Amino acid sequence: MSDTQPAQSADSAETAVQLTVNGQYVKDLSFEVPNAPMIFSELSKAAPEIPIGVDIEAQQIGERSFEVVLKINIEAKISGKTAFIAELSYGGIFTVAGIAPEHLQPMLLIECPRLLFPFARNIIADMTRDGGFPPLMMQPIDFVALFRQRMAQGDNGGGEPHATA
């Protein structure tokens, strides 16, 4: 053991926060191009508007296990016409141990979606590319800001953890 690292006592090792990703999966996936093939000729005429909606849900499924689902909804429009609609619900099963109850909700609504996001982002990019559009590379999401927004709206009470962008 190095002199610069203090030894952990048995008590501190037992109370260390542990977050384990047990599995990840596509829970729901949808992509449609309602105005195909005409919408593809619009791509060169105007830049698309691509609002992205993000929602996070978490529910307890075991003593220390939780399902966290990152939901992404996109309805891209070009010149007021729907270019594509993409919906993804990407889930993960997480085990959380050694955490104080008041820190559980931030763990589930900030850290867990942060771990899921890169995989969901890749699925969205592949899906839009395979749908005939340039791959949509979503910018990173500030899950802390989403969580704070939820708390500011007074949604910090009972029920299941849930956040919306």
Brief summary of the model shown:
With 165 residues, the chain is an alpha+beta fold. It has four helices and five strands, in the order H-E-H-E-E-E-H-H-E.
Description:
The chain is an alpha+beta fold. The protein has one domain (18-154): Bacterial Protein-export protein SecB (Roll). 30% of the residues lie in helices and 35% in strands. The chain is built from four helices and five strands. It has helices spanning 10-14, 39-42, 101-130, 143-152, and strands spanning 18-32, 52-60, 65-78, 81-97, 162-164. A five-stranded antiparallel β-sheet has the order 1-4-3-2-5. It starts with 9 loop residues before the first helix and ends with a strand. 22% of the residues are buried.
